[in-house]
Amino acid sequence: MKKRSCRRTNDENIIHEKAVKLRKLTDEQLVHYVEDRVEKARSEGRNEAKKGRDIKDFFEPLSTHGIIPGIGPGTVDKLKRFAKEGGYLD
């Protein structure tokens, strides 16, 4: 049995209104809306990655703690050299 609208909370009413608006969109409007949301998510993801931790933060625990078995200081140095040559590190 469906829930009566008089018993919905404010959050449920907001979600319901958004769902009704989406259902009323034409196919073309819906496709543009979804494509815009996907593009926005991609750009925000790129921006978050840029704001994220630095690659130096990745190498620091490896070189000091040796936390991964089989990856010794020599391998870490090789990775650092590769990152510097690729322009990932200063």
Describe what you observe in this structure.
This protein is mostly helical and 90 residues long. The chain folds into 2 domains: 7-52; 53-90. Helix content is 70%, strand content 0%. The chain has 4 helices and no strands. The chain has helices at 10-23, 27-51, 55-65, 73-85. The mean pLDDT is 81.
Overall 3D geometry?
Answer: elongated
Structural class: mainly alpha
**Rounded radius of gyration (Å):** 24 Å
- Write down the secondary-structure element order: HHHH
Tell me the number of strands.
0
Task: Say what oligomer this is.
Answer: single chain
Largest sheet report: none
Number of helices: 4
How far is it from the N-terminal to the C-terminal residue, by CA? 63 Å
Beta content = under 5%
Are there runs of 5+ residues with pLDDT below 50, and where? none
What does the average pLDDT come to? Answer: 81
- How many domains make up the coordinates? 2
* Helicity level: over 70%
